[in-house]
Write a structure and sequence with these properties.
alpha+beta; Alpha-Beta Plaits; single chain; elongated; two-stranded antiparallel ribbon
Length: 113
């Protein structure tokens, strides 16, 4: 079992969701987050002087999947989120030690989806 964490641009969320649904991944948690990467946030000009702005708004997707879905999930996120510009986002893959479905007490692979 894996936990896929993807940080993407907010305007790409619908495209990523469509791509994920096309490969059979429908279960996810979506959170609005703030952060900065290589672009180092927003730089604004105020009264002729450069000032570092705040953090950029991003969307975080948390997707628990079984091993068979890792490659299709990565491909779907990449396809849906890609613009080719700095700031497209990141994907992190984390080993998931356990998953428990609260309603039934089911554990492991069967509890994910």
């Amino acid at each position: 079992m894996k936990l896929v964490i993807a940080i993407i641009q907010p305007h790409k969320l619908e495209a990523v969701k469509r791509e994920l649904e096309a490969v059979g991944v429908n279960l996810m948690t979506v959170t609005s987050v703030l952060g900065q990467g290589r672009q180092k946030g927003v730089t604004e000009i105020y009264r002729g002087a450069k000032e570092a702005g705040g953090l950029l708004t991003k969307v975080r997707l948390d997707i628990a999947i079984n091993e068979d879905f890792v490659a299709p999930t990565i491909k779907a996120i990449t396809k849906g989120a890609h613009t080719g510009d700095v700031g497209d986002g990141k994907i992190f893959i984390v080993n998931l030690a356990e998953c428990i479905r609260i309603s039934s007490g089911e554990r492991g692979d069967g509890a994910i989806g």
